[in-house]
């Protein structure tokens, strides 16, 4: 009899688990909040959602990616309760949405570690990415043609970068990579490359450049000295209500902001 | 009882067969539904032959990508076709059957390697090699052509081997009887007789090269411009769709679906051509 009861016990666990999921899924007690958008903030939102659900088991938080454009679209259409966007300036169609800043993210300009340059001015940055500065010797570096590496059109990082630097018409010679990670690999493999990526993804394989004499550090960003910073917004259609409001409030709480700060972003609230 | 079982199985198989075709039809319908209106509104020429692709300014010209796709495919064919056909001839005509039975499945195994692995090798080995040897950014038309040329080898080799094996032994014997050497026989009899099958293999390989996405995104560099040399970075049609689909909304999204229509038509033409070639071979053999 012993093996039988043992098997029964093994079976009953998944059954109970499935049933509980089913009943909570359609039960009246469980409210759900859906977030969608920015892939830069997605891992942080997922982490925060997990922590939030531990404290508030009655609320289910779902996080999806898709990019900032998707975040705006789905908040507008109601497909998501909260949209996530990492843009400096929100586009015109986002006017009906109410933005709340939950974090900030520095964008670093990166080159190969063998590049002797230590920093760029905004004008030099613009010249490099517009294709006007075509050789590193124009900036006092070695005689080597510049390889510009950028993100694909529509990327939140690229849009923010181009808006802050201003007047960038990206050179047609630019190599396009579709994620922060592949930008890092391309720059790490090419001695004459210059690219940009999210501050949290810096590694020792690449070298970060100062912009206008400021290093991209949490202190410099908070002091307002480092210029390439973009805010990360949570967007709701009208003022947030109910569970959405509670979750946004949690993301702005000291506990959640500490989590954000520990994992590479800059907290919006100190 | 047996009768009922028989019929049930027959119906089930029929349903399975039609669901596959139905799925294909639905995909085609969906692509055309999403992209056709854009195609018509923008106009055939302004979409296919304009050379600025800048979705943020509302400019959707896919000419640079069309050119890039064609060059990359041509480059892949220049490498893959002669190499593949040579391997096939060697395996059938110059090597004992027992050796071929080991080598051919090994080559076909190459087809099972995920394209992301080819792309990874391209990024880590090929691109730095091109950069240090020839200059330029390394991620280039040349790198993409080379990787695709290797990727289509299994397709070309295995279909060419089948085509060459199918040439009746009596053709070869007749040629030898007339005093031809082995190479003369291969060149003047075997390759002529297997020609349509070999062409079909090349066209199928070409279809694969046009449609390949992941490896190309990783090694081609994806700059939107008409390439001036093999060392320039290029973006193919497939890479364009895959890169921007995640962000695209509205007109931009429609433009990407319209790009999909162009690809769909190109690949349909290639596959139909391959089909015609294969049929020609079969009917030619009967006659």
Describe, in plain words, how this protein is organized in 3D.
The complex is a heterodimer of chains A (270) and B (287). By secondary structure, chain A is an alpha/beta fold. Helices cover 38% and strands 24% of the residues of chain A. Chain A is built from nine helices and twelve strands. Chain A has helices spanning 2-26, 42-55, 68-77, 122-130, 156-165, 180-189, 218-222, 242-251, 254-262, and strands at residues 31-37, 59-66, 82-85, 97-111, 119-120, 147-151, 175-177, 193-198, 207-208, 210-211, 229-237, 266-267. In chain A, strands 1, 2, 3, 4, 6, 7, 8, 9, 11 and 12 form a ten-stranded mixed beta sheet that branches. In chain A, strands 5-10 form a two-stranded parallel ribbon. In chain A, strand 1 (31-37), helix 2 (42-55) and strand 2 form a beta-alpha-beta unit. Chain A is elongated and about 70 Å long. The termini of chain A are far apart. Mean pLDDT of chain A is 84; it is low at 23-28. Chain B has one domain (63-286): MetI-like fold.
